[in-house]
Amino acid sequence: MRLRPTILRYVAPRMAEQGYILIDPGGVANYTFCNQEHTKTIAFDLDKYMKRWIRVHFQIFFPLERDMLSFNLEYLKPELFPKINVVYETQEELDATLILLTDKIIEIIIPFMDVIQKNAVFQTLEMHEELAKGTIERAERFAEKWDLPLSTEPDMLHLDRVMDGLRKDVSQRKNDFYRNQGEIIDMAAYLGELMNIQENVPHQWYWRKLSDSDSERFYATKAQGFDVLSRVIAAWNLGVEVMNYSFRYFPVR
How confident is the model at residue 50 (pLDDT cuts 50, 70, 90)? Predict the structure, then answer.
């Protein structure tokens, strides 16, 4: 079974109406659409290793920040995107599902990507410098304020609720971030120290530079270092709508 006929007959013209052009024909299984500014892509492919399944991958690029955000269709929360059965058994089911997905992506996801692109925030050296000042005190203050354990048994669902309470409408996410920036940096201190405690290296943080072109970042010691501030900010940008950006997926035991 193939994506190509319906991609060319239906998906490509519909995406072109939204300013997304097919840039990667991909043969029979992979098709990528990109907007005219080359800052957003939407890719359709067939997972050959699972049960017959249409996958859709979204990327938003931020050239000035040299960063990106990406997410997959299957991780979108139902509050944002209705659950659609992407498993198919016949070519007819594949075609019908692809058409339905395209319509819903145009209706819901493309506007969502536009809003995220305007409101996403990214870490800066200044934020890492704030994190480095009184890190342990920040972690303890955050834990006490929100009644969260600073131990080997964290309550990540409660932490998700704390984050959700700081964010309002997605169109105000950037404003909400800067209004709550101190609290978010405290949250990063809490999460990093939580990871350190679980690895039996409490209070151990250090500065790290990944490459000559990067600025230094302040890392928790866990493993070879973990950019916890970057992870918290990614959760801020997408954790409401995309499940694997929420803290319940954070790498703690």
Answer: low
Distance, in Å, from the CA atom of 155 to the CA atom of 158, rounded to the nearest integer, reads: 6
Contact 243, 77 (CB under 8 A): yes
19: number of Cβ within 10 Å: 13
Predicted local distance difference test score (pLDDT) of residue 212: 64
pLDDT in tens, 98-139: 999 999 999 999 999 999 999 999 989 899 999 999 999 999
Contacts of 169 (CB under 8 A, 6+ apart): none
Asked if 84 and 101 touch (Cβ cutoff 8 Å), the reply is: yes
User: Rounded to 5 degrees, what are φ and ψ at 89?
Assistant: -120, -25
Domain coordinates in residue numbering, the chain: 4-119, 125-249
- How far is the C-alpha of 178 from the C-alpha of 16, rounded, in Å? 36
Six token digits for residue 143: 């834990």
Residue 26 φ/ψ region, left for φ over 0, alpha for ψ in the -120 to 50 degree band, beta for the rest: left
Cα separations in angstroms, 175 against 54, 169, 172, 181, 230: 36, 10, 5, 10, 18
Report yes or no on whether pTM surpasses 0.85.
Answer: yes
Cα distance between residue 137 and residue 174, in whole Å? 26
Using alpha carbons, select from 244, 134, 117 the residue that is nearest to residue 188. Answer: 134
**Do 148 and 159 touch, CB atoms closer than 8 A?**
yes
For 169-207, what is each residue's pLDDT tens digit?
Answer: 888 999 999 999 999 999 999 999 988 888 787 788 888
- Going by DSSP bridges, is the β-strand pair 205-208/67-72 parallel, antiparallel, or unpaired? unpaired
Q: How far apart are CA 56 and CA 99, in angstroms?
A: 13
Distance CA 135, CA 221 (A): 13
Separation between Cα atoms, residue 21 and residue 32, nearest integer Å: 8
